[in-house]
């Protein structure tokens, strides 16, 4: 009996040790529609979602505890109802994002097109849902498509569009009022709307222009809400200025065969743009890692990499400076340094799942030639990285990004130079000559030593300051 009580006491003590870490994590509440859920058509992603929705990216980068209450098809009316009846509790949230309004306008648009079509085509009745299905499944013939698009153009300046826009504004004001009444301290960001067809050519049929006008009108209403003291994430500009198409929509051909995808959801690249925009807006928070003293040799480097969004903690209040850095961690850091690019590259690594925090980073690093696997179908996601491996990855990253890799120095004075792998010699010469690394003593480089997280932060800071400036 005494042994059981003692075991219970120890278990309670261990549990209490974790309570402070859980309590200090900021709560992130993601509200809204299928943009926030990360929806993707199953013909693009069989799971029905992108690999990393923007909300997950934000939570990971900022150490937030994510509660994603978004629902596919959510409108301002349905979200308002949930807040009014208490289905969604916002009182404990520290940070809230909202994507809403697009479905209100699109639903009204399909109803308008359906009504107009049925008034003028008595031989065939098309419901709003049927029209949506035809456009999304590429099943409309060219004649029907042109008729539907013409009605879409008319909708932009219709009384039905004005009514829908006014309802969005009224509901949004009520939504924000309820949230602020129940939570006066939360940071709230509303994400404005984008034109999902801005990066495609529709061969003059008018889809791009019609949606552009609708989005501008909708965003004017969303921007008016800023008077209530919240922030608006300008995703419209981020998508307009994107280097690649940030959405799933495309137009391959109109004649003689229709090959169009009207899906308006962001692809993975689009989700990364949304996350980057919001991450840049989040109010900076002081470093709160309990295991980072103010006067250590690595303190400034950890501050630097954390504030740049290159490294995060191992928990909500710990950094673990002496923990060993893994191959997946380094790939993710360099991916962040490159701006979280999205690449179309099929990975063949058996130990890299498609939905992990490091998945897109490893995909990019492999496609860019910065890191490779072991040649047996394994990447080694959790394997420790050595000094020479880290430096070689940085060297390849610098070359990939067009940075200077000509600097080098004589490393023959180090007594353990013969331990450097042949492939790593140019990179080690470059890193020593560029001031990215120095010896672990006056006469050793220790190329095979495993790299701690504190050492990684220091090397990355030196690279950013000396090379990527």
Keyphrases for this structure?
Rossmann fold; five-stranded parallel beta sheet; alpha/beta; 47% helix
Q: Helix count?
A: 17
Question: H/E series, N to C?
Answer: HEHHEHEHHHHEHEHEEHHHHHHH
Helicity range of the residues? 40-55%
Strand fraction: 5-15%
Distance between the termini: 65 Å
Strand order of the largest sheet: 2-1-3-4-5
Within CATH, the superfamily of the largest domain carries the name SGNH hydrolase
Structural class: alpha/beta
CATH first level of the largest domain: Alpha Beta
Q: Can you tell me the CATH topology of the largest domain?
A: Rossmann fold
> What coarse outline follows from CA principal-axis ratios?
elongated
β-strand number: 7
- Name the average pLDDT: 85
Based on the structure given, which CATH architecture of the largest domain is correct?
3-Layer(aba) Sandwich
Quaternary class: single chain
Largest sheet: 5 strands, parallel
Radius of gyration: 26 Å
Word description of this protein:
β4, α9 and β5 form a beta-alpha-beta unit. By secondary structure, the protein is an alpha/beta fold. α3 crosses α11 and α13 crosses α14. The protein has a five-stranded parallel β-sheet. It has two domains: 259 residues, Rossmann fold; 168 residues, no CATH class.
């Amino acid at each position: 009996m005494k042994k059981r009580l003692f075991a219970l006491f120890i278990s309670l003590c261990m549990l209490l040790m974790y309570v402070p870490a859980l309590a200090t994590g900021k709560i992130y509440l993601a509200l809204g529609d299928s943009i926030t859920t990360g929806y993707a058509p199953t013909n693009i992603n069989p799971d029905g979602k992108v690999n990393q929705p923007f909300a997950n990216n934000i939570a990971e980068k900022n150490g937030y505890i994510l509660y994603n209450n978004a629902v596919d098809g959510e409108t301002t009316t349905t979200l308002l109802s949930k807040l009014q009846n208490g289905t969604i509790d916002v009182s404990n949230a520290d940070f809230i994002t909202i994507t809403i309004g697009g479905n209100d306008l699109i639903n009204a648009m399909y109803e308008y097109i359906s009504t107009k079509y049925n008034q003028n085509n008595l031989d065939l009745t098309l419901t709003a849902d049927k029209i949506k299905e035809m456009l999304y499944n590429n099943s409309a013939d060219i004649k029907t498509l042109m008729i539907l698009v013409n009605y879409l153009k008319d909708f932009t300046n219709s009384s039905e569009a004005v009514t829908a826009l006014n309802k969005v504004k009224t509901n949004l004001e009520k939504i924000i009022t309820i949230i602020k009444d129940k939570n006066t301290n939360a940071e709230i960001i509303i994400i404005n709307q984008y034109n999902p067809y801005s990066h495609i050519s529709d061969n003059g049929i008018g889809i791009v222009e019609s949606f552009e006008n609708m989005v501008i009108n909708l965003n004017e209403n969303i921007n008016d809400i800023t008077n209530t003291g919240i922030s608006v994430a300008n995703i419209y500009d981020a998508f307009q200025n994107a280097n690649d198409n940030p959405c799933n929509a495309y137009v391959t051909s109109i004649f003689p065969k229709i090959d169009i995808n009207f899906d308006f959801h962001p692809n993975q690249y689009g989700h990364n743009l949304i996350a980057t925009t919001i991450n840049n807006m989040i109010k900076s928070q002081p470093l709160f890692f309990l295991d980072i003293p103010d006067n250590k040799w690595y303190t400034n480097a950890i501050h630097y990499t954390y504030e740049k969004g290159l490294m995060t903690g191992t928990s909500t209040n710990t950094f673990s400076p002496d923990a060993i850095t893994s191959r997946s961690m380094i790939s993710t850091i360099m991916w962040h340094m490159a701006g979280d690019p999205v690449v179309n590259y099929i990975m063949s690594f058996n130990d890299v799942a498609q939905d992990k925090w490091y998945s897109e980073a490893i995909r990019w690093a492999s496609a860019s030639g910065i890191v490779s696997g072991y040649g047996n179908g394994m990447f080694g996601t959790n394997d420790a990285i050595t000094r020479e491996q880290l430096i070689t990855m940085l060297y390849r990253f610098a070359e990939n990004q067009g940075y200077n890799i000509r600097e080098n120095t004589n490393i023959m004075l180090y007594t353990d130079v013969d331990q450097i792998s042949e492939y790593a010699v140019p990179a080690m010469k470059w890193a020593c000559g560029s001031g990215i690394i120095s010896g672990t003593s006056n006469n050793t480089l220790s190329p095979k030593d495993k790299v701690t997280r504190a050492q990684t932060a220091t090397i990355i800071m030196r690279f950013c300051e000396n090379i990527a400036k």
